[in-house]
């Protein structure tokens, strides 16, 4: 709140409204109005946003990790969109939550808080556009490899091993498991990765 230039008196008031909550791996939150929880900061873990296509395939929009804010849970700015955005914790996670009404009050009173809100909206929409552009214009090979690289960057200290299944990758990319498996086997033949059950290891 210091970056938003919130007064000391207001910081003391608003900080009392912040609370912590834990979520199990696989727990989901809908983006509908009744599910709005506030401005969420991920203390640890990971949260992905995705939509489900008309043919029941999941399409990953973006994934947030430690230190990221979840703007979809903020003031329900997406409540008028015509498709449902789903939020799922892909790891056991803990988050800090500033209730929507409190964040709205901050945004109205402090211009820098409002700008923070708008910047986050812009960043998340940019990620959504990038994801949909990738789906439309990139080959599955490119999408799988880029997905693995992004997952590896967010993998903490372990920069060579991912604990993920072919099905989880397929769901994240909105593709068929069989197609993803073929791409992964091609990458293995190219000596870029080693496939094990539920594990993908990267080679130097």
Automatic annotation (TrEMBL):
Entry annotated with the keyword Zinc: no
Pfam family, one: HTH_Crp_2
One MF term in the entry's GO annotations: DNA-binding transcription factor activity
Domain HTH crp-type positions: 138-204
Origin superkingdom: Bacteria
InterPro entries to which the protein is assigned, alphabetical: cNMP-bd_dom (IPR000595), cNMP-bd_dom_sf (IPR018490), Env_Response_Regulators (IPR050397), HTH_CRP (IPR012318), RmlC-like_jellyroll (IPR014710), WH-like_DNA-bd_sf (IPR036388), WH_DNA-bd_sf (IPR036390)
Keyword Cytoplasm belongs to the record: no
Gene Ontology CC annotations of this record: cytosol
Keywords: DNA-binding, Transcription, Transcription regulation
SMART domains reported in the protein's UniProt record: HTH_CRP
Name the record gives this protein: HTH crp-type domain-containing protein
Native source species: Helicobacter canadensis MIT 98-5491
